[in-house]
Description:
Elements: E1 3-7, E2 17-22, E3 29-30, E4 35-40, E5 44-49, E6 54-59, E7 66-67, E8 72-78, E9 107-110, H1 125-129, E10 131-132, H2 142-151, H3 169-181, H4 184-188, H5 215-230, E11 233-241, H6 243-258, H7 265-279, E12 285-287, E13 294-296, E14 302-304, E15 306-308, E16 311-313, E17 316-317, H8 325-340, E18 354-358, E19 377-381, E20 385-391, E21 396-410, H9 416-431, H10 433-437
Parallel strand pairs: 14-18, 18-19
Antiparallel strand pairs: 1-8, 1-9, 2-4, 2-7, 3-6, 4-5, 5-10, 6-8, 11-21, 12-13, 14-17, 15-16, 19-21, 20-21
The protein binds oxidized coenzyme A.
Amino acid sequence: MAIQEVLVPDIGNFDSVDVIEVHVKAGDSVNQDDSLITLESDKASMDIPAPFSGTVKEIRIKVGDKASQGTLIALIDAAEGLAAPGDTKPAAVPEPAAATPDIPPPSRPVPEVPKPIVPQGTPNPVAARAEFVSGKNPHASPSVRKFARELGADLTRVTGSGPKGRITKEDVQTWVKGELTKPREAVSGGGMNVLAMPTIDFSQFGATETQPLSRIKKLSGANLHRNWVTAPHVTQFDNADITDLEDFRKSMQDEAAKRGVKLTMLAFLMKAAANALRTYPNFNASLSPAGDELILKHYCHIGFACDTPDGLVVPVIRDVNQKDVLDIARDLGELSAKARERKLKIEEMQGGCFTISSLGGIGGTMFTPIINCPEVAILGVSRSSIEPVWDAKSKTFEPRLMLPLSLSYDHRVIDGADGARFTSHLRVMLSDVRRLLL
Ligand code: CAO
C-alpha cells in the first residue's frame, strides 16, 4: 500500500484552466480510468482519469480552482493487487472515439517515491479525450456526455444550468426524470409512435362477449395498418356515366349466361382499369424497397377485394389486358367462389399490379380504399344511381346512371394531376362502350 499524489498531466497547450467538476471525495474507491475531475478551457473540456485503482485519501482541488500541468489533484492509496502506479497500462479512450491511445496522468508516491510517474512516448493523453465545447455541440464535459449516453439522454435537448450554460450531471438527471413523467404522446414527437389504446373494461357499461378474430382478419388488419401508415394516401373522386354501359351489359347477359358466366359491372371496370394502367404506366408500378426507384411492370394482373365470411381476401386476375370481358367475368366468378370456399391458392392472390374494391353490390356513395401496397393505387367503386345530369345540347337535365369512383393513390409516386387524369380516363372509357371494348 502506498499513498500517491495524483497530478494534472500534460494537457497540451492549456494552462491555468478551470476546474468545473470534482467527481470523487475522500473515502471513495476509484478504478483506474475513472474520472477524477473535469477541466475546462474556453475551447475544450477534458476529464482527468485516475491513473490507478485505489482509495481516495484526500482531495486537494475544488470546483473553481485553476489547474495546470502538475497541479495536485488528490492523494490516492493504491489498492493492493490492483494496477499500481508503476505498471499502469494505457487506458481505453472512452470518449470521444479517438485514434490516439490514452494514458493515465502522472502521479507521485508519498513519500517514498518522489518523482511522478510520467507516461513515455505517447501523445498528449488528455487532449485525446477532450471534447470541444465551441460550435454546435452541447456544452458538457466528457463524463456528463458519458452519463447522458448511458441513460439515452439527448444532450441537445437538455438545458445547462452550469457556468456558460454548461450541462451538469444534475441537468441530465432532471431532464430524464421530466421525460419519464411526460405523457407518452408528448415524448414521441413527430415519429410514428401511436398513443397506446386504453384498456377499458366495457362490461362496466353493459353486457359484452368476446370473440376471437379470424386468421384472415388478423393478417389483413396488420397489412392494412402497415399500408395506411406507410403510403401517404390521397383519394380522388369522380363519377362515370355508365347508362349506356349498363344497357350494353344487360343486353349481353343472355349471351354470357349461355357460356355459364355472370357478366357484372366489375368485369367492365377491370377492362377499363387495364386500359388506364397502360396509358398511365406509373400506376402499374411499385417503389423499390429503398424508395429511390420505381419498378414499372410490363404485365397487367388486377386484384379485386372479395368479402368472405372469414374476412377480406384479394384474388388476382392475370393478364387482364389480354382478356375480353367475358373471360374476365368468368375469372371473377371462379375466383370469388373459391375465395368464399377458402380454396384460393397462394399464387391466386399474388402478383397484383392494381386492385379494385367494389362495394356497389352493397351500397354507399363513396369511400376511401386503402392501397394494397406495394401497389401504388386502388380503385373503390360505390353503388351506381340515377342522377340528373345537365345536357348542354338539349339544355335539360337528363336522368343518367352514374357510378361513383374513388381512386386512392400513393402520393410518393403519383401526383395529384395524374390522379385526376387517371379517374378522368376511367370516366371516359366507362361512358363509351366502344372505347372500352377496343
Ligand atoms: N352499383 C349498383 N349495383 C351494383 C354495382 C354497382 N356499382 N356493382 C354490383 N352491383 C349489383 C350487381 O349488378 C348485382 O345485381 P344483380 O344480382 O341484380 O345482378 C349485385 O349488385 C351483386 O353484385 P356482386 O357483388 O355479386 O358482383 P360484383 O361483380 O359487383 O362483385 C365481388 C363481386 C366479389 C367484388 C363482391 O361480391 C364483393 O365481395 N364485394 C365486396 C368487396 C369489399 O368488401 N370491398 C371492401 C374492401 S375494403 O377496402
